């Protein structure tokens, strides 16, 4: 008789533990489906108290399956960046990476059957749709490259890329024509595929260049192991759509990435 209450207590703890795990899995699944997403948004969609949501998010962050991305506010960018949650690569694998294996196998098979150029054509088609959607949004703000960069960042964020565009400062004085913006993306839905197929990153960079009307440079990518995808955008020369195959006559004007001090990154 003395052991019975102890067994009941252990059973109660097990039930509560199972319920906690089910809720945690729901939170993880919601981050996968809706990320980048805030804790408040998760609480509303799952009908969970804010305290419970944050407890589960903290546990998932400690487990390395969820991470926080800071998103710059739109408009002036004033104030503290908003916190948004996304899955890490480990988190995606913990849910199941069958989709990734299928996509990877399909792309390798496509390259075998039709040649490496077929993967590039696929990337062009994928990012071409993005370019067509973003073009009117970017054009609506006029010819100022910095304003176009901010409009592009806002469009990317709406599509889940957790992007921001911030003017950068330099440790050394720079002439006015070397003013620039850094476009940072904290999330990439094809990160692991891009690590094997660089055409995805190269094509996206070319799309940014066409949308902004200047020759942009990639300083880092998530696919290459960077903390964020960072694109250097010169703003001091004005928009002038580059011609394919034409060398950048200002290439030597682009300082080394270490010279930049971004005002804010996600």
TrEMBL record:
<feature type="region of interest" description="Disordered">
    <location>
        <begin position="1"/>
        <end position="21"/>
    </location>
</feature>
<dbReference type="InterPro" id="IPR036388">
    <property type="entry name" value="WH-like_DNA-bd_sf"/>
</dbReference>
<feature type="region of interest" description="Disordered">
    <location>
        <begin position="231"/>
        <end position="266"/>
    </location>
</feature>
<dbReference type="InterPro" id="IPR011991">
    <property type="entry name" value="ArsR-like_HTH"/>
</dbReference>
<dbReference type="Pfam" id="PF13412">
    <property type="entry name" value="HTH_24"/>
</dbReference>
<dbReference type="InterPro" id="IPR036390">
    <property type="entry name" value="WH_DNA-bd_sf"/>
</dbReference>
<protein>
    <submittedName>
        <fullName>Winged helix-turn-helix transcriptional regulator</fullName>
    </submittedName>
</protein>
